[in-house]
Specification:
The chain is of the alpha+beta class. The chain is built from nine helices and 13 strands. Helix 4 (about 45-65) runs antiparallel to helix 5.
């Protein structure tokens, strides 16, 4: 039996609110592509936004890693990523202001679950984001292939199916602390015998074949005081153990490398340097790392 008391409309119509909040729709759109549209009940638009962001982010990373666009490459990618957020943001705010009555598709708990799921699933949705990793060059040890301040991409999946080769520029974890990341050139493979005589590197008794990448800035030659202890410029023959690789910097006179702390285990290798995506020298932007 009715008690004669009329319930407010907000209670009579469960799951509805008078008007969606434009600021909330915009915030959700910024946090997770498509979530703002989902909040408004625009399911098709939400799907289109999410799929577009995933595809275009993969395309942007692929362009940076494989195409030499010069300085326009990073700028194009930056503009593209910016538009990926601005266009859906503007659209969702406009639509939020046009909708007078909102039928909430689900409660706040479901929104939280979607956001958390996005964080964990994003690496799988944008696989190229995990395939390639960005690094910055802090020192001059790899000049002229990599210069101070260069930003480059390394393919972290490259050595999942391939083995390092002499001449590869590789990012690895320094065996000195198992934390710091180094980038050097691989000069010796497991089983190789490496030695150095007056700055000349020998691999299995033969002069280094990648000498064109090497430079020396110090004319002086460091001799071993006892004829045995290795120095920067002289080293007795050393056999690289199985599962280890020998790394040197191209700027041989200014590089901390395997001459001083030994070979590097394959387990510490992170990826192959592939392309410079930003540099203070604009002519270097887009260059492959060789």
């Amino acid at each position: 039996m009715s008690d004669g008391i009329e319930k407010p409309e907000s209670e009579a119509i469960q799951g509805q609110v008078a008007k969606p909040k434009a600021w909330l729709a915009g915030l959700l759109a910024v946090l997770v592509p498509g979530l703002g549209h989902l909040y408004l009940g625009l399911y098709k638009q939400a799907a289109v936004v999410w799929i577009s962001v995933v595809l275009l982010l993969n395309l942007a990373i692929l362009l940076l890693a494989s195409v030499n666009w010069g300085v326009f490459g990073p700028l194009l990618v930056a503009v593209l990523i910016l538009l990926l957020w601005i266009i859906p943001l503007v659209h969702v705010i406009i639509r939020a202001r046009q909708i007078s009555i909102l039928q909430l598709p689900f409660n706040s708990a479901i929104f939280i679950i979607i956001v958390v799921a996005w964080v964990f699933l994003a690496p799988f949705a944008v696989p190229l984001g995990t395939k390639y990793h960005a690094y910055t060059v802090p020192a001059s040890s790899m000049e002229d292939a990599l210069q101070v301040g260069d930003r480059f991409l390394a393919d972290q999946s490259y050595y999942l199916t391939k083995t390092p080769q002499r001449g590869d520029v590789i990012v690895f974890v320094w065996p000195g602390d198992n934390v710091t990341k180094f980038v050097k050139r691989c000069v010796g493979l497991p089983g190789d015998t490496v030695s150095m005589v007056d700055k000349q590197l020998f691999i299995n008794g033969r002069p280094e074949v990648t000498a064109a990448t090497v430079k020396h800035v110090d004319a002086n030659t460091q001799k071993s005081p006892d004829g045995i202890k290795p120095t920067r410029d002289n080293m007795e023959p050393f056999i690289i153990p199985d599962g280890y690789y020998y790394f040197l910097g191209d700027n041989r006179d200014n590089s901390s490398d395997s001459r001083f702390w030994g070979p590097v285990s394959s387990e510490l290798i992170l990826g192959k340097a592939v392309r410079i995506y930003w540099s203070s020298n604009f002519e270097r932007i887009g260059m492959p790392v060789k």
